[in-house]
Amino acid sequence: MSETIRVAVLGRDGRMGSEAVRAVTDAADMELVAALGRGDDLRELVMSGAQVVVDLTVPAATRENVRFAVSHGIHAVVGTTGWDDAALAQLRSQLADSPGTGVLIAPNFAVGAVLAMKFSELAAAFFDSVEIVELHHPRKLDAPSGTAARTAALVAAAREKAGVGASPDATESDPLGARGADVAGVHVHSVRLQGLVAHQETLLGGTGEQLSIRHDSFDRASFMTGVLLGVRSVAGHPGLTHGLDGYMDLGL
Predict the structure, then answer these.
(1) What confidence score (pLDDT) does residue 163 get?
(2) Catalytic option among 72, 75, 118, 140
(3) Burial code of 12-30, b = ≥16 C-beta within 10 A, e = fewer?
(4) SS3 162
């Protein structure tokens, strides 16, 4: 019988964090040893004997949470946004001093969303135009979403590698920003609407055709498959992994 994984959840009072507490509690191969909220002492992670910490907090807290975990040899599975290139570089440097510790930074834990990102990346080189629309509940703190930003980066890199130019766009005047955010050269549009959870569509256009790649999460339970996959896999992947697809055998 395999050893039970001792797990701590940060952000227990949030929508994602409370869902993760339930998922870990219900998992036969895991033991929830700590569930921390805002203002709780991170030293509880050490005292609880946690092997893996799941960070589902807020951008202002996540970097320090992960820094603390890594400094104590605790693996981290992170679904909080706010990890720019500089922060990732600092994390890689810290992980170099803790070679047995693994960290997963996942813009999205829904398996369907991860596949949609990968499909968008694969398709991007074959179409003249690409734009991204992401739709979320109005309580979301960041825009564009981490998933949309990651998708844009993957799409842009794939197009650059294939030698595909920028999407054609004759817009000369956009004083109100109607064309959306420019993320790595890809236009991203953010919608915040009551009743939504998490939704994203990549729109790709070519002469005489259009391809739409869409994913919808109607319940936060959809993210827990990926969270549990991360918890089960992170110890076997020392260093930094960016994106849940790093733990998925996609055969690509």
Answers:
(1) 96
(2) 140
(3) bebebbbbbbebbeebeeb
(4) helix
| Contact call for residues 83 and 105 (beta carbons, < 8 A) | yes
- Is 84 annotated to bind a ligand? Reply is no
Kindly give the parts of the chain with pLDDT less than 70.
1-2, 251-252
199 annotated active-site: no
Maximal CA-CA distance, the chain: 64
Structure tokens at 217: 């999460």
Tokens matching residue 80? 């909080």
**Positions of CATH 3.40.50.720 in the chain:** 5-105+220-247
DSSP label at 168?
A: P
**Top-level CATH class of 5-105+220-247?**
alpha beta
CATH 3.30.360.10 in the chain: give the residue spans.
111-217
Residue 119 marked as a ligand binder: no
CATH architecture of 111-217: 2-Layer Sandwich (3.30)
> Is 106 known to sit in a ligand binding site?
yes
For 183-210, the pLDDT digits (tens) are: 999 999 999 999 999 999 999 999 999 9
Q: Catalytic: which of 75, 118, 136, 189?
A: 136
63 labeled binding residue: no
**136 a catalytic residue:** yes
Each residue of 39-80: pLDDT tens digit?
899 999 999 999 999 999 998 899 999 999 999 999 999 998
Q: Which residues contact 156 (CB under 8 A, 6 or more apart)?
A: 124, 183, 184, 185, 186
Pairing of strands 181-183, 186-192: antiparallel
